[in-house]
């Protein structure tokens, strides 16, 4: 799936679409330079998934968990920003790999920083600056990722 996101409202709309297509156990890697919109997308996704509070960029904590209800089932959505991670070993030392347990939904900014130790994604989202907006491409890498893309309706009916 490819789309052009003309402004931030389109990025937010994609977050809504993704939130509606989530399933427990899904792991999403977000690719793109600083300022591409990875955090903006995640913030919109979390709010659309029912998180009412603030969503901060987990720049220093590296990970931030949120508890949401998905079709009546409680699920953790864990948001990672690995930008400041010094080495892939840090990922293991922090116990992050145990988060990928087939039930938690894991959303990872800067997956490149944990190359070799990060579990493979179900879904990859690639954001890039295009003019004053952003281009986005979504790629599925598993049956879970494929079914997420099949259920994804973008733009969402708001
Ligand atoms: N589709 C878009 N077009 C233009 N600007 C956007 C779009 N989506 C997000 N932005 C802006 O780009 C910036 C993205 O920042 P952020 O989400 O923190 O990026 P990242 O997490 O990838 O470093 C924000 O200032 C946001 O307002
Ligand atoms: Mg970010």
UniProtKB/TrEMBL annotation:
Location(s), subcellular: Cytoplasm
Key word Metal-binding present: yes
GO biological processes: tRNA threonylcarbamoyladenosine modification
Domain of life: Bacteria
UniProt cross-references to InterPro entries, sorted A to Z: P-loop_NTPase (IPR027417), T6A_TsaE (IPR003442)
One GO cellular component term noted in the UniProt record for this chain: cytoplasm
UniProt cross-references to Pfam families, sorted A to Z: TsaE
Chief localization: cytoplasm
UniProt GO MF annotations: ATP binding; metal ion binding
Keywords carried by this UniProt record: ATP-binding, Cytoplasm, Magnesium, Metal-binding, Nucleotide-binding, tRNA processing
Family designation: Belongs to the TsaE family.
The protein's name in its UniProt record: tRNA threonylcarbamoyladenosine biosynthesis protein TsaE
Lineage, top ranks: Bacteria, Pseudomonadati, Pseudomonadota, Betaproteobacteria, Burkholderiales
């Amino acid at each position: 799936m490819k789309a052009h996101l003309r402004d931030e409202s389109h990025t937010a709309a994609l977050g809504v679409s993704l939130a509606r297509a989530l399933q427990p156990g899904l792991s999403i890697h977000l690719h793109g330079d600083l300022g591409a919109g990875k955090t903006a997308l995640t913030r919109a996704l979390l709010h659309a998934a029912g998180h009412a509070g603030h969503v901060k960029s987990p720049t220093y904590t590296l990970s931030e968990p949120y508890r949401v209800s998905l079709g009546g089932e409680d699920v953790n959505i864990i948001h990672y920003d690995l930008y400041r991670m010094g080495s892939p070993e840090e990922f293991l030392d922090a116990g992050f790999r145990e988060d990928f347990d087939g039930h938690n939904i894991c959303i990872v900014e800067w997956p490149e920083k944990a190359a070799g130790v990060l579990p493979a994604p179900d879904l990859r989202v690639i954001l890039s600056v295009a003019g004053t907006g952003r281009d986005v491409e979504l790629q599925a890498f598993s049956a879970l990722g494929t079914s997420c893309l099949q259920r994804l309706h973008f733009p969402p009916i708001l």
